[in-house]
Design goal:
- The chain is mainly α and 402 residues long.
- It has one domain: Up-down Bundle (Growth Hormone, Chain: A), CATH 1.20.1250.20.
- 83% of the residues lie in helices and 0% in strands.
- The chain has 15 helices and no strands.
- The radius of gyration is 20 Å and the shape is globular.
- Residues 1-5 have low confidence and may be disordered.
């Protein structure tokens, strides 16, 4: 493996986390602006804004495939810089959008550009590490990454209150420019010229075939996509549930940050534990915990005919964040474990499959919300059970082959 040594592991983790955080930033910082955007565009409900922001994921799926394949052919740095440029262009469209449909266009363009930091970062990590070591590094990246949801609603709320919702997109653009400069100056190219595949349809199809016929990669990516559907839905619904249903008002960012801390804690613990315990066992732990706790909450809601008290809800959502923090690093590493020769294309298809599975599920759950958290808790329970079945099946087949 080509192993650049110019940057320390600490700077590498911080840089990759910053690039990955652009995706979370583009979703979470805009949450406090939903009400103002709804009023500005004269929409019926804030759910319409949430669904528009969700369309960012549609662009993200397209961008992941495009930039992942491109990074195998041209190198990681050209693909990353192209994606960041498109993301910045999308923020300009969203910032200047005169109508709601134009805002949707801006969100989709942003998503296409974000495909590069979402997927090329994964390929860069795979260039340097593999297996449990990759899961360990991804966990520490997620620790840094997890602080974005903690602070971004506070930043977004302050920006919206004093400067207006459009300024949020200017902050996104500044983040894109800063990350691009840091990445370009400091990180060496991790895809050597000798390993690059020139663009031919035959070569592209060959790389795609390598990934698509790798059952472990496809199944683990699908499992991550299923549980991500509930996770994305909880992000999109968090303001409606906490700020309005539970009437937290301006205290909403604090509770959102509290939940996000559990995601950071899970990532840190996973980074320490994965070498000794193993990725597969940690995935089983995360999915079993998510499923059993959700079943308990659904039963409580059905029996009592009412939603839980706020402390119970926050504890539950923190537990879901913790379980997801355990799952995301390990399922990504399991999916990428045997895709080193085509890491860019592999990361692209793993990311795209995760997105294509998760976004429709998240939109379905969002539409099912009618003032009760039952659809969300039910989704966490059902989706984690589905993912558990997938992981158990592919795990047994892998042992059988071994």
């Amino acid at each position: 493996m080509h192993s650049p040594t110019r940057v320390s592991d600490g700077e590498f983790i911080a840089m990759i986390a910053a690039l990955m955080a652009l995706v979370a930033l583009a979703i979470n910082m805009i949450l406090p602006a939903y009400a103002d955007m709804t009023d500005h565009f004269k929409l019926n409900t804030q759910t319409q804004v949430g669904l528009a922001v969700s369309l960012l994921y549609a662009g993200l799926a397209v961008g992941q495939v495009s930039f992942g394949v491109l990074s195998d052919m041209t190198g990681r740095k050209p693909a990353m810089n192209a994606g960041l440029g498109i993301f910045i262009f999308g923020t300009v469209i969203s910032w200047s959008a005169p109508t709601f449909p134009m805002l949707i266009v801006g969100q989709i363009v942003q998503g296409v550009g974000l495909g590069a930091p979402r997927v090329v970062t994964l390929a860069i990590v795979r260039d340097r590490y593999e297996g449990p070591r990759m899961a360990r590094v991804m966990s520490f990246i997620m620790v840094v990454f997890a602080f974005v949801p903690i602070i971004s609603p506070y930043i977004g709320q302050t920006i919206v209150a004093y400067l207006g919702w459009r300024t949020v997109f200017a902050v996104f653009a500044a983040g894109g420019v800063g990350s691009c400069i840091w990445f370009t100056i400091r990180l060496p190219e991790s895809r050597p010229v000798s390993a690059r595949s020139p663009f031919t349809w035959a070569g592209t199809l060959q790389n795609l075939g390598i990934v698509l016929t790798n059952k472990s990669a496809v199944v683990n990516a699908a499992a991550l996509g299923v549980v991500s559907g509930a996770f994305i839905a909880s992000l999109n619904l968090s303001q409606q549930i906490l700020q309005f249903q539970y009437e937290l008002g301006t205290r909403y960012p604090f509770y959102f940050a509290l939940m996000s801390l559990s995601l950071a804690a899970a990532s840190f613990i996973n980074g320490k534990a994965v070498i000794g315990i193993g990725m597969q066992r940690l995935v089983l732990f995360g999915l079993t915990g998510m499923c059993s706790l959700s079943l308990a909450l659904v039963t409580m809601i059905v029996v009592s005919q009412t939603d839980p008290a706020l402390p119970i809800l926050i504890s539950y959502l923190m537990a879901m964040m913790f379980c997801f923090g355990i799952l995301v690093s390990n399922l990504n590493a399991l999916a990428m474990r045997s895709l080193g020769a085509a890491a860019g294309t592999g990361a692209a298809l793993v990311g795209a499959l995760t997105t294509f599975v998760s976004v429709p599920l998240a939109i379905f759950v969002g539409n099912a919300y009618q003032g009760s958290i039952l659809p969300l808790s039910g989704a966490y329970g059902l989706f984690s059970l589905m993912a558990l079945c997938l992981v158990v099946i592919v795990g047994k087949e892998r042992k059988g082959v071994a």
